[in-house]
Amino acid sequence: MMRDIYLKPGKEESLKRFHPWVFSGAIARMEGRPREGELVAVRSSEGVFLAKGHFQIGSIAVRVLSFEEAEAVDGAFWERKLRLSHDMRRAIGLAGLPGNDTYRLVHGEGDNLPGLVIDVYGHTAVMQAHSVGMHLERMHIVEALLKVMEGEVTSVYYKSETTLPFKAGLQPEDGFLVGGTQDNVAMEYGLKFHIDWLKGQKTGFFIDQRENRSLLERYAKGRGVLNMFCYTGGFSVYALRGGARLVHSVDSSSKAVDLTVENVALNFPDDARHAAFAEDAFKYLDRMGGDYDLIVLDPPAFAKHRDALHNALQGYRKLNAKAFEKIRPGGILFTFSCSQAVTKEQFRTSVFTAAALAERRVRILHQLTQPADHPVNIYHPEGEYLKGLVLYVE
Ligand code: SAH
């Protein structure tokens, strides 16, 4: 039997509008003591069923899987949900696209599966649990995944060591749940990338910048490109294909620089236009010359939590000001923030203040966000995290 959780009076409103979370403060009482990751039923103060989902100790107490009382969370459920996700990726032309076998299949709340991320890299899927419930269900999810992706996915790598709550004492180990392969080169829009799912950040690659990398390719011709915070060198490889005059990739991590060099070599062996440097962004921007007329700034999330917001905004301002100071007249700046805690407005204000500080005349060419395989559930607008601006600097 599923345990019931009763909300305080009036706290059912957000669930009635399909928001997929129940905050711990909204709970009046629980039937017994649910274990972490257990499937629970959420009811109004009057006992009316509202939703069912995974319970977890923390500020988000329940992550909703279904708003239907009659819908069981079983093997058929996972299969149905994954099939919906796959159908959508097919409908938008990503799954099955020639020359592209890299895409996000499941994007948590954006696919009505809070706590679960699945990225597809060729025949390998990398699965990440962000909730205890998804961790406990992982083998059922894998089983459904293999059915839905039959013939497409043959290996599943599980990578949740850093995304699960430490206190839950789960001690998840990263590794293959199914299959196993050394072949970790995937294709994105005709370009090859070595995906480091073993040690890389996130699931090994930042799929969320795909469309923005593709846009950059269009502007790269003849330009001197600086790809700051290059990680696996995604923007660099697209810039090279776009006909850049030179491409410099910079990251403070020497491992990232190695990955970038490797990915450039996979696509453009011995291309003298590219060089990579392991250096701190602020130091590099301070000492660099004025060779660049296309600069990418894609820093890590400066604000992981709301308390860090002030410092984060200051960080964006300083970073962008340095780029505005050095970019050539007629230059194009691609600047991003992936901090969920930073709003679009706050990010814009930081960037515009930076432009004013550097006394540059700037126009907005594009306003960017995350791509279609990272959809935003309209009932969970918090899911929109990636913000980008493409600016023309006179
Ligand atoms: N643009 C990349 C993703 C960037 S992830 C892509 O498209 O895939 C952020 C990167 O910033 C990480 O690789 C991290 O090593 C690097 N980084 C973090 N702090 C830095 C700093 N102070 N200077 C330079 N790089 C930094």
N-C termini distance: 66 Å
Q: Report strand order across the widest sheet.
A: 16-15-14-17-18-20-19
Bound molecules: S-adenosyl-L-homocysteine
Rounded to an integer, what's the Rg over CA atoms?
22 Å
Major sheet details: 7 strands, mixed
Relative helix content: 25-40%
Q: Give the helix/strand class.
A: alpha/beta
- Number of distinct beta strands: 20
Q: What is the number of helical segments per DSSP (H or I, 4+ residues)?
A: 10
Let me know the average pLDDT. Answer: 95
β-sheet strand percentage:
25-35%
Q: What shape does the CA trace take?
A: globular
Helix/strand order: EHEEEEEHEEEHHEEEEHEHEHEHEHEHEE
Low-confidence stretches: none
Description:
- The protein has 394 residues and is of the alpha/beta class.
- Helix content is 27%, strand content 27%.
- 44% of the residues are buried.
- The mean pLDDT is 95.
- It binds S-adenosyl-L-homocysteine.
- The site of S-adenosyl-L-homocysteine has 17 residues, from α6.
List keywords for this structure.
394 residues, alpha/beta, 7-stranded mixed β-sheet, 27% strand
In short:
The chain has helices at 13-16, 75-91, 132-136, 138-148, 210-219, 234-241, 254-267, 281-287, 309-326, 344-357; strands spanning 3-7, 21-23, 27-30, 39-43, 49-55, 60-66, 102-107, 116-121, 124-129, 155-158, 175-178, 185-188, 191-194, 224-228, 246-251, 274-278, 294-297, 331-337, 362-368, 387-393. The chain is α/β, with parallel strands linked by helices and 394 residues long. The structure holds S-adenosyl-L-homocysteine.
